[in-house]
């Protein structure tokens, strides 16, 4: 599988470009900003993007959606609980003194246990509310990889003081959906460096 990460936007969002080496079909996860760089990178990898997936609806993770969807004629996927945030992304960004862009609405909603298929590759959606009501992680079992959005970070967890956040719910999501994965699964968060599930189970200060 092709797996490429880019750090985009002023808040340093990790955007992921995944692709099938056999078919050239790809997906983009958390297209937060820098749309032209994301597009150029995906095309440089020889990928045709069929789906854009948002792990959650915060403005820093969705700002490049429109340009990428228009360029590739791709489908957008996000959990239904976070879809209302897409139309407010620009206003929320301005409240933080930043520029943002509203996103189109999704063609499909992510649901817990749903499989996303691109070429011969597949990943499973894990609904992990707490940072936002519709926050999701994306598990690629064959690759021993999970993309955790802003649910779990290296030695930390996502903020829960924003609208819709819940500290107790976030801890429960991590315990039941992420800490039940094998210890050797690599976790790629929405910001900052990767970690492993085993490391976080043993050393994350919130647990």
Automatic annotation (TrEMBL):
SMART domains listed in its UniProt record: Lactamase_B
Residue ranges annotated for the Metallo-beta-lactamase domain, each copy included: 12-191
Transcription among keywords: no
Cofactor entry: Zn(2+)
Pfam families: Lactamase_B
Keyword annotations from UniProtKB, A to Z: Hydrolase, Metal-binding, Zinc
Protein origin, superkingdom: Bacteria
CDD domains registered for this protein in UniProt: metallo-hydrolase-like_MBL-fold
Protein name: MBL fold metallo-hydrolase
């Amino acid at each position: 599988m092709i797996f490429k990460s880019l750090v985009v936007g002023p808040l340093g969002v990790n955007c992921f470009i995944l692709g099938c080496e056999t078919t050239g079909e790809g997906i983009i996860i958390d297209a937060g900003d820098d749309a032209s760089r994301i597009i150029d990178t995906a095309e440089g990898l020889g990928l045709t993007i069929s789906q854009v997936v948002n792990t959650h609806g915060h403005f820093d993770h969705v700002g490049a959606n429109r340009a990428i969807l228009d360029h590739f004629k791709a489908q957008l996927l996000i959990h239904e609980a976070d879809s209302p945030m897409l139309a407010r992304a620009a206003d929320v960004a301005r409240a933080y003194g930043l520029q943002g862009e509203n996103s189109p609405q999704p063609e499909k909603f992510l649901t817990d246990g749903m499989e996303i298929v691109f070429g011969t590759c597949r990943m499973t959606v894990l609904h992990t509310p707490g940072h936002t009501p519709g926050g999701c992680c994306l598990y690629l079992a064959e690759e021993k990889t999970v993309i955790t959005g802003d649910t779990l970070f290296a030695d930390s967890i996502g903020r829960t003081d924003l609208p819709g956040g819940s500290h107790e719910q976030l801890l429960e999501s991590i315990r039941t959906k992420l800490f039940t994965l094998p210890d050797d699964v690599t976790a790629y968060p929405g910001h900052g460096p990767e970690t492993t599930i085993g490391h976080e189970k043993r050393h994350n200060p919130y647990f």
